Amino acid sequence: MAGIKHDAPQVPSPLRVMFYFESTGWFNTTGEEKTNEILPVLNEIIASWRENGSELLGTIDRDILTAGHAGSAGWHASFLYNVPDLQTVADMTNSFRATGLDKYFRLEAVIGRPFFLLEK
Fold first, then answer.
1. Strand, coil or helix: what is 110?
2. What is the residue-wise DSSP string for 13-77?
3. pTM for the whole structure
4. Are 19 and 78 a contacting pair, CB within 8 Å?
5. Residue 75 maps to a domain
6. pLDDT at 69
7. Does residue 29 lie within any of the structural domains?
8. Residue 11 falls inside a structural domain
9. Phi, psi of 100 (to 5 degrees)
10. What parts of the chain have a pLDDT lower than 70?
11. How far is residue 23 CA from its own chain's centroid?
């Protein structure tokens, strides 16, 4: 049985990045805090990601069949981006720390590449 020749994966440019987004302290805030303090900062961060050379490819929100804390999956939503370089990925995750949003949300980046059997 012949196998598929599988050389070392090539790091793509731009990077393919999945950001896992989890609500943490969000559940312990009031509606007023969410509307007046947290969401405006989150919206500013997302807008800045549009300006840093990253391209949003798609999102998934798990809220159709879940409610409340993320549970064992560890995330509520995921965002798939093409990102120009590793420093930009670090800047994107750091934006939650720099603005204090890490008190309410956890953001984790996973770097990969397009799946070779589906995307060429």
1. strand
2. SSEEEEEEEEESGGGGS-HHHIIIIIHHHHHHHHHHHHHTT-EEEEEEEGGGT--SS-GGG--SE
3. 0.88
4. yes
5. no
6. 85
7. yes
8. no
9. 85, 5
10. 1-2
11. 12
pLDDT of amino acid 65? 87
pLDDT recorded at residue 12 = 87
Spatial strand order of the sheet with 77-83 comes to 55-61, 77-83, 15-23, 105-112
Structure tokens at 24: 């943490």
**For residue range 51-60, what is the model confidence (pLDDT) as tens digits?**
999 999 999 9
Quote the number of domains for the chain. Answer: 1
Q: What is the CA radius of gyration of the chain?
A: 17
- The pLDDT value recorded for residue 98 is 98
Q: Report yes or no: 19 and 108 within 8 Å, Cβ to Cβ.
A: yes
Expressed as residue numbers, the domain containing 53 is: 23-68+85-112
Domain assignment present for 104: yes
Report the interhelical angle of 86-99 vs 39-51 (nearest 10°). Answer: 160
**Gap between the Cα atoms of 23 and 75, Å rounded:** 8
